Amino acid sequence: MASPIRKVALTGGIASGKSLVGEYLRSKDIPVIDADDVVHRLLREDSDLKAKIRQEFGDAVFDPAGNVIRAKLGELVFKSVPRRKLLESWIHPKTRQRIEAFYVENHQAPLGVSIIPLLFESHLEDRYDEVWLLETDEATQMARLQGSRGMTEFDAMARIRNQMPMTDKLERARQCPCSAVIRNSGSPDDLFSQLNALLSRITDRPA
Hints:
There is one protein chain. This protein has 207 residues and is of the alpha/beta class. It has two domains: 1-31 and 111-207, P-loop containing nucleotide triphosphate hydrolases (Rossmann fold, 3-Layer(aba) Sandwich), CATH 3.40.50; 36-105. 53% of the residues lie in helices and 13% in strands. The protein has helices at residues 18-27, 35-45, 47-57, 70-78, 81-105, 138-147, 153-161, 166-174, 188-203, and strands at residues 6-12, 32-34, 111-115, 130-135, 179-183. The longest helix is centred in the middle third of the chain and has 25 residues, at 81-105.
């Protein structure tokens, strides 16, 4: 009898390389779901969610076609913890449902990876067989945000400081029964080498 799919959660701070890891894993035919992608789809397609957003945040966060303007919505919740928590209370349950369905759909795969930026903040680590934490130093985060995303130094620092500190993420990861820290402040080849070692360990795991 085939062993059940191994549920892996991948997390890390902003500009830590989560999307790059996701692309690499997909190139290895590993099922991957990105919580951010799920949220973006909900904001596009979930009429109940959009109605709540319109009632709370107003017409200013919608374009003429009725689509949520994520940048404007993000600006509002970034400045208000209560409003951010309210929005998360609407979005997170729906996102978790979609991720659970993802594992059912891919139950025959040896593993499936969920990219969840707010894994520790949402206290979801216990739902997974393994937790992979992407560790990136602040200087690298700053360079990536200012380079590829075009942020100012002030905005980049504000985004980094608004997240759970990496030291806290590392401590939470160490408390997980099965976790791995993937260091991504170097070259892509170094990153991929670490991923290959993790994949080999899981693939070789006895059924």
